[in-house]
Amino acid sequence: MKIRYFILFFLILISVGIYVAFFYEKHLDEKVYKNGDITLKVYKISRISTVHDYIDLERWGYCKNIYEANTGGIYNIILKKDMVIIQTYKAGIYELAAKTLETEIKIDSSITTYRYMKKFQPQNAKYYKQ
């Protein structure tokens, strides 16, 4: 009888864990960029085995996800009038909108390993200087 209750408790515990992992996705390290009527939210979502970067564009009361990629690839975000420039470093991009809500989205992948390391890991940047 005790084994049945233990198994039932264990199954309920696993069910709650799966619900939290897949349906409750907390935004980590959220940063907000604003320029006029454009608002960008840059955040990470941690799943069971990986972390992904996301960018949401808000304009005129609408919100669209414009970018999804492996984490660690976003170097900088630049907002210019109706244009968003996402500077990336070796990002495995899964989803990217080219234009949405009358806003053009461009990827700048010219970031070198040295520049990336100098910004995020300055103590190791000297090993990548050429």
Write structural notes for this entry:
Keywords: Membrane, Transmembrane, Transmembrane helix. With 130 residues, the protein is α+β, with helices and mostly antiparallel strands. The protein has one domain. The protein contains 2 helices and 9 strands. The strands form 2 sheets. It has a 5-stranded antiparallel beta sheet, with no helix packed on it. The protein has a 4-stranded mixed beta sheet with strand order 5-6-9-8, with no helix packed on it. Strand 1 and strand 2 form a beta hairpin. The longest helix has 22 residues. The chain is flat, with a radius of gyration of 20 Å. It starts with a helix and ends in a 10-residue tail after the last helix.
Give a brief rundown of this model.
By secondary structure, this protein is of the alpha+beta class. It has helices at 2-23, 113-120, and strands at 28-35, 38-46, 51-59, 62-70, 74-80, 83-88, 93-96, 99-100, 103-108. The relative contact order is 0.12.
